[in-house]
Amino acid sequence: MSEQDAIGEAPGAEAIERIARAAIARLPQAFRAHLGDVVLIVEEFADDATLAALGIEHPLDLTGLYHGRPVGEKSSMDSGALPDRIHLYRRAILDEWVETGVRLDDLVVHVTIHEIGHHFGLSDDDMHALEDAVA
């Protein structure tokens, strides 16, 4: 087996988080200014309760999830609520990466921007425009 044929380990949670944080750092300031309290979490899979709540049967079918209220729906009465969270699910992202052949960094950026889009209440078209701005 040549060195080019060698297969290394799958990227870990740290690598996925590093790619996601780099994408966030490239966002326009107007968006970054509203992400300071959002927690980024990289987990292997979504838990059973999350999958059940979304009606998803297989954990590899969910690559990311935003938990929280969109910025435009927040109120000063929200005190005591958990912080908004963006979950990236490593194993589902890696599975999609292998299935689609999309570059891993492009896929992680796509999922991250999509979940950030939910934080801002953006449409799919707006999410794609934001993703293009980060690329």
Layout of strands and helices, then pairs:
Elements lengths: L12 H13 L3 H4 L6 E5 L4 H7 L9 E4 L17 E5 H11 L3 H17 L3 H11 L1
Parallel strand pairs: 1-3
Antiparallel strand pairs: 2-3
Helix pairs in contact: 1-5, 4-5, 5-6
Rounded mean pLDDT score: 86
**Quaternary structure of the protein:** single chain
Write down how many β-strands occur, each being a DSSP E stretch of 2 or more residues.
Answer: 3
Taking the sheet with the most strands, its summary is: 3 strands, mixed
Helix share, percent: 40-55%
Spatial sequence of strands, sheet with the most strands: 1-3-2
Overall geometry comes to globular
N- and C-termini, Cα separation: 35 Å
The parts where pLDDT drops under 50 for at least 5 residues are none
Q: Give Rg in angstroms.
A: 16 Å
- The count of helical stretches stands at 6
Strand content: 5-15%
Element pattern in H and E: HHEHEEHHH
Kindly describe this structure.
The protein has a three-stranded mixed beta sheet. It is built from six helices and three strands. The protein has helices spanning 13-25, 29-32, 48-54, 90-100, 104-120, 124-134; strands at 39-43, 64-67, 85-89. The mean pLDDT is 86. α1 (13-25) crosses α5 and α4 crosses α5 (104-120). It is globular. The chain is mainly α.
